[in-house]
Amino acid sequence: MNNQNITKVIVAGEGGQGVQSIAHILTKAAFAAGLNVSFLPNYGVEQRGGVSLGFIQFGKGIIGFPKFSQADILLVMRDRAIERTKRYIGSNTLYIYDSDLIKADQLSDIYVQKLPISATSTANQKLDPKVFNIILLGAIVAECGLIKDKFIESEIDNNFADKYKIKPQFKYLNKKAFEIGKKLTKEVYR
Amino acid sequence: MPEKKELLTGNDVVLKAAVLAGANYFAGYPITPSTEIMSGWAKLAARDKTLEFLQTEDEIAAGMATIGGLLAGKKAWTVTAGVGHVLIQDPMVLAETLSLPFVMYVGQRGGPSTGTVIYSQQELNLARYGGNSEGLRVVYAPSNIQELFEITQKAFHTAWRYRIPTIILGDGYLTKTLSPVDTSKALPQEKAEPYFLNGEVKNLRNCFSREDELAEHLNILFAKYAAMSRQIVESESYKTNDAKVVVFAWGTVGFAAKVAVTNLRKNGKRVGLFRPITMRPFDDKSAIKAVKKANKILIAESSGGQFGRIVRETLSQTTKAEYTRLYKPAEGITPEEIEEKLSEML
């Protein structure tokens, strides 16, 4: 029931950072792309501040269970999520993090391949602080390489449809953020 | 009907199943991880005049209003979780003594007290025997989102067929997970009827003057419960015929255990699973049969032993198998963890 044709992603950050939003977008896009999917959210009682997690799986194989022990891709958006997510790291986990909010020496005891993405500073300087999470989503999509961009872009728009009514410029900003996120993964020296 | 898979959360699925089962009255109070069922119902009720909705001041009132709906002939139901589940046990025992078809979905969250908001298996005792209950109720435990759809419908059928309070006992892993589900299949249902008609005098009693009077009332209920149990008791014995090690697990953990057993069986390991589907009544006969060839039993649950106590009581003096416990109170258990534990035991 569990098999190799499933990509397992954990998105982790602080409540209010949009962890659940990007997890939703990724899951719905994968479903639209014809893949099997599952997304399990996990968070505490806090509206803001607590650690918020999303367990996402997608692929051509059969998904057995919504939670898993090891992630293929782990995205950590905030330093306080570092400890909480250590237990989900396996030898093949790709560790993506926001290098503006987490310093490399905070991860000195984590021995897996890492992908630092300067999402916060890039969003602040080039776009809008709010879209930093879409930059990180771009990094995940580029790394897993299973979902075509058009599916992600359309789910981003669905997810923020209400927001676009008030601030239409976010449609453009989100699209740009997604493109930059994908591009940044290629610029990181590995 | 052809299979129709939609991307839904378990909360969406409970709501769809209830509507399909003919539910038309909902009284409740919001609580994570089940809030979206109530807010979803409120949205439906705003559009559809045949659906009624009442948000009450707390869960005691929610349960009492649900009972009011039932007496008036509505297919009334409610949804709660955690500390709300504690409060609603008071109206639940009223429904128990009056033999009312009180249907309730419960999303277990961590405890004791406020605990955590998504997941645990710590409300099993409460669901089976909460309040000053004698356990005269049915408790179903779905293990995945597809089963949640079928069992929610089945709960309405059982409740109205046998006139008995019925709980669907889930958790936030089940109802917060977003995944594809086929929601095309409707199960048969019973018709709802009012308990009181205009001008009719009827005395439904929850209060008795004499001990022997109450005892007589209860003995009738116990006899009815025993007869019903034979009709509705349900469990899954998966690859237990030749199993040397049998894992006992229920609900979400039951599904994780099935994944683990499937993986180990691929490598020829003689492992099996016993998973109760009705947590009350409990399928004793099948449980005893499932461990006939076993010399070891693993009990896996996200509580400190609420399920384990039922298992050991059920199997006492029927097996010499040795018990191993994988108790993780308030924490999820993955298939990988169960597989590892079973491998150690083989």
CATH fold descriptor of chain A: Pyruvate-ferredoxin Oxidoreductase, domain 3
Beta-strand content of chain B: 15-25%
What coarse outline of chain B follows from CA principal-axis ratios? globular
| Overall pLDDT confidence of chain B | 96
Spans of at least 5 consecutive residues with low confidence of chain A: none
What's the β-strand tally of chain B? 14
**Kindly, what is the distance between the CA atoms of the first and last residues of chain A, rounded to a whole number of angstroms?**
34 Å
Our estimate of the beta-strand percent of chain A is: 15-25%
Strand order of the largest sheet of chain B: 3-2-4-5-7-6-12
CATH domain class of chain A:
Alpha Beta
The largest sheet of chain A has its strands arranged as 2-3-1-4-5-6
3D structure, described in words:
- The complex is a heterodimer of chains A (190) and B (346).
- In chain A, 40% of the residues lie in helices and 24% in strands.
- Chain A is an alpha/beta fold.
- Chain A has a single domain (6-187), classed as Pyruvate-ferredoxin oxidoreductase, PFOR, domain III (Pyruvate-ferredoxin Oxidoreductase, domain 3, 3-Layer(aba) Sandwich), CATH 3.40.920.10.
- In chain A, strands 2-3-1-4-5-6 form a six-stranded mixed β-sheet.
- In chain A, helix 3 (119-126) crosses helix 4 and helix 4 (132-144) crosses helix 7.
- The N and C termini of chain A lie far apart (34 Å).
- Chain B is an alpha/beta fold.
- Chain B has two domains: 5-232, Rossmann fold (3-Layer(aba) Sandwich); 236-345, Rossmann fold (3-Layer(aba) Sandwich), CATH 3.40.50.920.
- Helix content of chain B is 43%, strand content 20%.
- Chain B has twelve helices and 14 strands.
- Chain B has helices at 10-20, 35-47, 59-71, 82-97, 124-129, 145-162, 172-176, 211-232, 251-266, 284-290, 306-315, 335-345, and strands at 5-9, 25-28, 52-55, 76-81, 103-108, 138-140, 166-171, 178-182, 235-238, 245-248, 271-276, 278-280, 296-301, 322-327.
- In chain B, helix 1 packs across helix 2 and helix 3 (59-71) packs parallel to helix 4.
- The A-B interface holds A 1-2, 24, 27-28, 31, 36-45, 63-70 and B 7, 32, 114, 116-119, 173, 176-180, 255-256, 258-259, 262-263, 332, 334-337.
